[in-house]
Amino acid sequence: MLDMKNINYKFWNLVVIVKNQKILLIRRNKGDFFGLVPPGGKIQFPETFHESAKREVFEETGLTLNNLQLEGLSGYINEKKGEQFVYVDYYSDDFSGEVIKNGEEGECNWYPLSEFEKLEIHPDIKKRIKNILENKSYEYQIFWDEETNSPSTKKLITNDKMR
Protein backbone atom coordinates (compact mmCIF):
# COMPACT_ATOMS: atom_id res chain seq x y z
CA MET A 1 0.00 0.00 0.00
CA LEU A 2 1.24 3.47 -0.92
CA ASP A 3 2.21 5.81 1.93
CA MET A 4 0.23 9.03 1.35
CA LYS A 5 3.07 11.06 2.88
CA ASN A 6 5.33 10.05 -0.01
CA ILE A 7 3.14 11.19 -2.90
CA ASN A 8 5.10 13.34 -5.37
CA TYR A 9 3.00 16.23 -6.67
CA LYS A 10 4.20 18.48 -9.49
CA PHE A 11 2.34 21.44 -10.96
CA TRP A 12 2.55 22.70 -14.55
CA ASN A 13 0.64 25.12 -16.77
CA LEU A 14 -0.36 25.38 -20.40
CA VAL A 15 -1.62 28.57 -22.11
CA VAL A 16 -3.61 28.60 -25.35
CA ILE A 17 -3.02 31.99 -27.03
CA VAL A 18 -5.22 33.04 -29.96
CA LYS A 19 -5.03 36.05 -32.28
CA ASN A 20 -6.83 36.69 -35.60
CA GLN A 21 -8.10 33.08 -35.86
CA LYS A 22 -4.58 31.71 -35.28
CA ILE A 23 -3.08 29.79 -32.35
CA LEU A 24 0.46 30.29 -31.06
CA LEU A 25 2.37 27.03 -30.75
CA ILE A 26 5.97 26.05 -30.11
CA ARG A 27 7.73 23.34 -32.10
CA ARG A 28 9.36 21.79 -29.06
CA ASN A 29 13.00 20.85 -29.48
CA LYS A 30 14.03 19.40 -26.14
CA GLY A 31 13.31 16.54 -23.79
CA ASP A 32 11.54 13.36 -24.72
CA PHE A 33 8.48 15.13 -26.10
CA PHE A 34 8.49 16.59 -29.60
CA GLY A 35 5.85 18.25 -31.75
CA LEU A 36 3.74 21.37 -31.39
CA VAL A 37 2.72 22.54 -27.92
CA PRO A 38 1.22 25.68 -26.42
CA PRO A 39 3.57 27.67 -24.18
CA GLY A 40 3.71 26.67 -20.54
CA GLY A 41 5.82 24.92 -17.98
CA LYS A 42 6.61 24.12 -14.38
CA ILE A 43 5.19 26.17 -11.55
CA GLN A 44 8.04 27.30 -9.33
CA PHE A 45 7.54 27.59 -5.58
CA PRO A 46 6.18 29.98 -4.25
CA GLU A 47 4.57 31.29 -7.48
CA THR A 48 0.83 31.32 -7.91
CA PHE A 49 -0.49 29.35 -10.88
CA HIS A 50 -1.44 32.62 -12.59
CA GLU A 51 2.01 34.20 -12.06
CA SER A 52 3.70 31.09 -13.34
CA ALA A 53 1.64 30.99 -16.54
CA LYS A 54 2.46 34.63 -17.29
CA ARG A 55 6.19 34.05 -16.60
CA GLU A 56 6.36 30.92 -18.76
CA VAL A 57 4.61 32.62 -21.68
CA PHE A 58 6.98 35.58 -21.49
CA GLU A 59 10.09 33.35 -21.27
CA GLU A 60 9.02 31.08 -24.13
CA THR A 61 7.36 33.55 -26.50
CA GLY A 62 8.30 37.12 -25.52
CA LEU A 63 4.61 38.02 -25.03
CA THR A 64 3.26 39.75 -21.93
CA LEU A 65 -0.20 38.48 -21.04
CA ASN A 66 -2.59 41.26 -20.03
CA ASN A 67 -5.46 38.91 -19.27
CA LEU A 68 -5.52 35.20 -18.55
CA GLN A 69 -8.57 32.96 -18.17
CA LEU A 70 -8.54 29.67 -16.26
CA GLU A 71 -10.03 26.94 -18.48
CA GLY A 72 -9.44 23.53 -16.96
CA LEU A 73 -7.32 21.07 -15.07
CA SER A 74 -5.56 18.06 -16.42
CA GLY A 75 -2.97 15.64 -15.20
CA TYR A 76 -1.21 12.33 -15.05
CA ILE A 77 -1.50 9.92 -12.16
CA ASN A 78 0.99 7.08 -11.66
CA GLU A 79 -0.34 5.09 -8.71
CA LYS A 80 2.57 2.67 -8.65
CA LYS A 81 5.19 5.44 -8.36
CA GLY A 82 2.98 7.67 -6.21
CA GLU A 83 3.16 10.57 -8.69
CA GLN A 84 0.52 13.09 -9.66
CA PHE A 85 1.26 15.84 -12.17
CA VAL A 86 -1.38 18.57 -12.30
CA TYR A 87 -1.69 20.95 -15.26
CA VAL A 88 -3.55 24.24 -14.86
CA ASP A 89 -4.74 25.17 -18.37
CA TYR A 90 -5.42 28.77 -19.46
CA TYR A 91 -6.57 30.86 -22.45
CA SER A 92 -5.59 34.35 -23.51
CA ASP A 93 -6.25 36.62 -26.47
CA ASP A 94 -5.11 39.78 -24.64
CA PHE A 95 -1.37 40.33 -24.75
CA SER A 96 1.37 42.69 -25.89
CA GLY A 97 4.87 42.30 -27.31
CA GLU A 98 6.46 40.57 -30.25
CA VAL A 99 6.78 36.79 -30.59
CA ILE A 100 10.27 35.34 -30.22
CA LYS A 101 10.69 33.13 -33.27
CA ASN A 102 13.43 30.81 -31.98
CA GLY A 103 13.45 30.54 -28.22
CA GLU A 104 15.10 28.07 -25.87
CA GLU A 105 12.05 25.78 -25.93
CA GLY A 106 11.74 25.77 -29.71
CA GLU A 107 10.37 27.71 -32.67
CA CYS A 108 7.22 29.81 -32.04
CA ASN A 109 4.71 30.32 -34.86
CA TRP A 110 1.09 31.24 -35.41
CA TYR A 111 -1.00 28.45 -36.98
CA PRO A 112 -4.47 28.92 -38.55
CA LEU A 113 -7.25 27.52 -36.38
CA SER A 114 -8.84 26.22 -39.59
CA GLU A 115 -5.93 23.72 -39.82
CA PHE A 116 -5.97 22.75 -36.13
CA GLU A 117 -7.02 19.12 -36.69
CA LYS A 118 -4.09 18.56 -39.09
CA LEU A 119 -1.43 19.96 -36.75
CA GLU A 120 1.20 17.69 -35.19
CA ILE A 121 0.03 17.97 -31.57
CA HIS A 122 0.02 15.13 -29.03
CA PRO A 123 -3.56 13.72 -28.92
CA ASP A 124 -4.01 14.42 -25.19
CA ILE A 125 -2.85 18.03 -25.55
CA LYS A 126 -5.02 18.43 -28.65
CA LYS A 127 -8.05 17.25 -26.64
CA ARG A 128 -7.36 19.89 -23.97
CA ILE A 129 -6.86 22.66 -26.56
CA LYS A 130 -10.07 21.67 -28.35
CA ASN A 131 -12.08 22.03 -25.12
CA ILE A 132 -10.55 25.46 -24.55
CA LEU A 133 -11.39 26.57 -28.10
CA GLU A 134 -14.95 25.24 -27.69
CA ASN A 135 -15.30 27.30 -24.48
CA LYS A 136 -15.78 24.28 -22.23
CA SER A 137 -14.39 23.86 -18.76
CA TYR A 138 -12.84 20.44 -18.13
CA GLU A 139 -10.97 18.02 -15.98
CA TYR A 140 -8.89 15.50 -17.90
CA GLN A 141 -6.99 12.84 -15.97
CA ILE A 142 -4.74 10.17 -17.40
CA PHE A 143 -3.84 7.17 -15.25
CA TRP A 144 -0.44 5.75 -16.14
CA ASP A 145 0.32 2.00 -16.20
CA GLU A 146 3.93 1.58 -15.15
CA GLU A 147 4.14 -2.01 -16.39
CA THR A 148 3.06 -1.26 -19.97
CA ASN A 149 4.58 2.27 -19.96
CA SER A 150 1.33 3.64 -21.41
CA PRO A 151 -1.98 5.11 -20.27
CA SER A 152 -4.35 2.60 -18.69
CA THR A 153 -7.37 4.88 -18.28
CA LYS A 154 -8.36 8.37 -19.42
CA LYS A 155 -11.15 10.33 -17.78
CA LEU A 156 -12.55 13.49 -19.34
CA ILE A 157 -15.26 15.57 -17.69
CA THR A 158 -16.45 18.63 -19.65
CA ASN A 159 -19.08 21.27 -19.09
CA ASP A 160 -20.29 24.21 -21.10
CA LYS A 161 -19.44 27.31 -19.15
CA MET A 162 -22.28 28.88 -17.22
CA ARG A 163 -21.30 32.41 -18.26
Distinctive features:
163 residues; mainly beta; 2 helices; 15% helix; hydrolase; NUDIX_hydrolase_dom; NUDIX_hydrolase-like_dom_sf
Write the SSE topology.
Blueprint (H helix, E strand, L loop, with lengths): L7 E12 L2 E7 L6 E3 L2 E3 L6 H13 L2 E15 L4 E14 L9 E7 L10 H11 L2 E10 L4 E11 L3
Parallel strand pairs: 1-6, 5-8
Antiparallel strand pairs: 1-2, 1-4, 2-3, 2-7, 5-6, 8-9
Please describe what this structure looks like:
The chain has helices spanning about 50-60, 125-135, and strands spanning about 10-20, 20-30, 35, 40, 65-80, 85-95, 105-110, 135-145, 150-160. It has about 160 residues and is mostly beta strands. The chain has a single domain, classed as Alpha-Beta Complex (Nucleoside Triphosphate Pyrophosphohydrolase). Strands 1, 2, 3, 4, 5, 6, 7, 8 and 9 form a nine-stranded mixed β-sheet that branches. A hairpin with a 2-residue loop joins strand 1 and strand 2. The longest helix has 13 residues, at about 50-60. Its cofactor is Mg(2+). It comes from Oceanobacillus luteolus. InterPro entries: NUDIX_hydrolase-like_dom_sf, NUDIX_hydrolase_dom. This is NUDIX domain-containing protein.
